[in-house]
Design brief:
- The structure holds two protein chains of two kinds.
- Chain A is α+β, with helices and mostly antiparallel strands.
- Helix content of chain A is 56%, strand content 23%.
- Chain A has a two-stranded antiparallel ribbon with strand order 1-2.
- By secondary structure, chain B is α/β, with parallel strands linked by helices.
- Chain B has a single domain, classed as Rossmann fold (3-Layer(aba) Sandwich).
- Helices cover 40% and strands 15% of the residues of chain B.
- Chain B contains eleven helices and eight strands.
- Chain B has an eight-stranded mixed β-sheet, sandwiched between helices.
- In chain B, helix 4 (100-113) packs parallel to helix 5.
- Chain A binds chain B through residues 19, 23-26, 28-29, 31-33, 35-36, 39-40, 75-79, 81, and chain B through 146-147, 150-151, 154-155, 157-158, 161, 166-167, 180, 183-187, 190, 193-194, 196-197.
């Protein structure tokens, strides 16, 4: 009996998680987030990807960074528009020495 | 007197700029201020019909700018609210008939006499937008919780910032509490996160707004309607009153409805 209740609970939980993902307002905000970045930077989607890649390449020259994780956001702070990027560093101990110019 | 000139803009058309202008103007007048609303949508004027003043137009904005009449000759006294005036747009001219500086001069003149000068901005980001935003010192942006309206609002916020009109505030219009609850409409928090501007007010989708437009009597006169109450609240916030945003939880139980009604009697927006 208890087992049955537990099973039922897990079922409804899975359903609510699924629902969360398919809520159309979440799709809307996700799509808008990207569109607004492109609009604010006045960059085409492919150019944005290109820039992302280049920034990643530059950073990876100096430290070991995670491949897949790179967050990008363009925010407005009062009168400024700022580009915020989060790049996950894998291991700081393997930080490469900066090349002497 | 030095009044405040506020432009009501959106980028996208049809989100409720004109309705917002009429209602905030009326709400401010109901709070005892001398208010003038200026329709700058030359060629597509509508503020006059929303306010029910379409039959009283003799002179318009372009006549004033071109010196064909005095400023006060183009001001139409509102039928319903005391100390509220409308300067209608010209219907048979285009947006290039006036220059931004000319409109700014006119508004500076109006600021001497009125506490609030509200400018109803045309849709788009062309000449008409430049005219309206140059004339103002503050901006209110109207959007609906839809992707297209939010995208355009963001663009307009950027344009306002770069033209030196800082700190615009946002009205989210036509919110459907039921859709929000179901997760099929972005809520206040979602919009705030995306646009990162201060929220001035929330207006629920309300049939009374349609009826009000049909009759030419701004919905804010109907304080029992949710949209009317929302606009009165927004007018109070524009006026500097420290009252919270409207709670748009769908009211289901009878008890909460009663509590709502009782609350309204002594509420901050029963002032007028």
């Amino acid at each position: 009996m208890l087992e049955l209740i537990r099973w039922f609970r897990s079922l409804t939980k899975r359903e609510s998680e699924q629902l969360e993902q398919t809520l159309s307002k979440n799709t809307a905000t996700q799509r808008l987030k990207l569109v607004l970045i492109q609009d604010r930077l006045e960059l085409a989607p492919d150019k944005l990807e290109e820039m992302k890649k280049e920034i990643w390449q530059v950073v990876s020259k100096y430290m070991v960074v995670k491949d897949e994780f790179m967050e990008f956001d363009v925010r407005r702070l009062d009168e400024l528009t700022v580009l915020v990027s989060n790049i996950e560093v894998k291991d700081l101990s393997v930080m490469m020495p900066a090349p002497t110019a | 007197m030095t009044g405040r000139t506020i432009v009501i803009t959106s980028g996208k058309g049809g989100v409720g700029k004109t309705t917002a202008t009429a209602n905030i103007g009326t709400g401010l007048a109901m709070r005892g201020h001398k208010v003038v609303v200026v329709d700058t949508d030359i060629g597509l004027r509508n503020l006059d019909v929303i306010m029910g003043l379409e039959n009283r137009i003799v002179y318009d904005l372009v006549n004033v700018i071109e010196g064909e009449c005095k400023l006060n000759q183009a001001m139409i006294r509102d039928k319903h609210a005391y100390d509220l005036y409308l300067i209608p747009a010209a219907q048979t001219r285009d947006k290039n008939s006036i220059e931004p500086e000319q409109l700014r001069e006119m508004c500076a003149e109006l600021e001497k006499e009125f506490a609030y000068v509200l400018i109803d901005c045309p849709a788009g980001i062309e000449q008409g937008f430049k005219n309206a935003t140059t004339a103002a010192t503050e901006a209110i942006i109207v959007t609906t919780p839809e992707v297209s309206a939010i995208r355009d609002a963001d663009r307009v916020i950027g344009l306002l910032e770069s033209s030196g009109l800082h700190g615009p505030r946002l009205i989210i219009n036509r919110i459907s509490p039921a859709l929000v609850k179901r997760g099929d409409m972005m809520d206040q928090q979602d919009v705030e996160n995306l646009l990162s501007v201060e929220i001035l007010g929330l207006v629920p989708a309300d049939e009374h707004t349609v009826v009000a437009a049909n009759r030419g009597v701004p919905v804010v006169h109907n304080t029992k309607s949710s949209a009317g109450a929302a606009f009165l609240r927004i007018a109070a916030r524009v006026d500097g009153a420290d009252i919270p945003l409207m709670d748009l939880e769908p009211r289901t139980s009878i008890i909460s409805r009663i509590r709502d009604m009782v609350g309204k009697k002594g509420g901050a927006y029963s002032h007028a």
